[in-house]
Amino acid sequence: MDLRVASKLHLLILVSFLFLKARGGSTRSVVFIDGASHKYIRNQQLDGAESNLMALDEVAATTSVLLGFAPPLSLADDSSAKLNKVLLPNPFDRPRAVFMLEVDGVDDTLLSSEKSFKSRVGGASKAEIRLPGEDEVSIVRLDESLDIECNAACLDQELKNLADWLGGSYVDGEMTLPLASGNVLKLHVLKEADLQFASSLVSFLRTIRKGVEIHEDLAGSIVNPAELLIGRFTGIKALEEEYGSGKMVSLGMEVFQTVLTKSFDLLQNSYGGKIVGVVIFNKEHTAHVGAMIDVVFPLRISRWLDEVSQANSTDSVTLVRRTLAWTTGIILLVSTILGVCLLMNMPLTRDTLLYSNVKLD
């Protein structure tokens, strides 16, 4: 009897643990940030963030729709219903520009805005954004490292520019950044973690400005592709691995929040409010390495095969035409030579002279 009670107790504890884990949800979350002057995302109820749960595939499908493309045909009905909970029901008014960023080591409390839609993210750890073709989408990678030609002097100048942009200072390898909370973050670039965090901020800001320049170039051209700015920020994770979950990480998160907010405001001004931010927060430590969402072009291979088949058919037609031309030419040449030879060796009789149109007296 005691054994039965003990086994039931263990089972009850296990079920309770799993239930609490499910209720607690995943440590991953996504925040959709609406445009400043244009509205593309639905309003969310106060308790909606805790009750919403989306898969990464659904986040990727939502991004495709925001870019102006149809979601994958394999999307289930319940997933389509989740997309309708996020997006406004206006298929003819999409921003066609998305700023997507994955942030490691941070939860969604970093962002709080009335024009945002939050949801927990569960399920698989990988997803794909399927786009129709490379010529229809302009992609800017936000996680590109600093250029190789950026030497120590270049890096110092970039760090100084970053500190000035944030209202701080950078002197002799020490960056001092005042925060809105009244705290001050000091980074020493001689420390690997501090340098990685600061250089990640520099690289992120440089690619944001690069995206703005590309958008301005596209705005003045005839083509009008959709625009996707996508990347991953790991600077907070570098601080966490070095200092643990302490004050240094909290200050770093506050700095990154400022950089993220100012960068998105820069994009909003450049795009005229016609851009939506999709920020995915991942605080869990998994064996998976790399970005959670990739961009793929499924039609690229079939299009290449079509081009190859068209090229092969063109070559075949050209070969047939050349063969016919050479064959006809050879036949005409042989016929001409035979005719001349027969005329030269023809006996001079009355019939042959008449055949040759010779006038006989």
TrEMBL record:
GO terms for cellular component: endomembrane system. Pfam families: DUF7794. Residues 1-24 form the signal peptide. Residues 27-283 form the DUF7794 domain. Keywords: Membrane, Signal, Transmembrane, Transmembrane helix. It comes from the Eukaryota. The chain crosses the membrane at residues 324-344. The keyword Cell membrane does not apply. InterPro entries: DUF7794. PANTHER family: OS08G0567000 PROTEIN (PTHR37735). This is Uncharacterized protein LOC109729079.
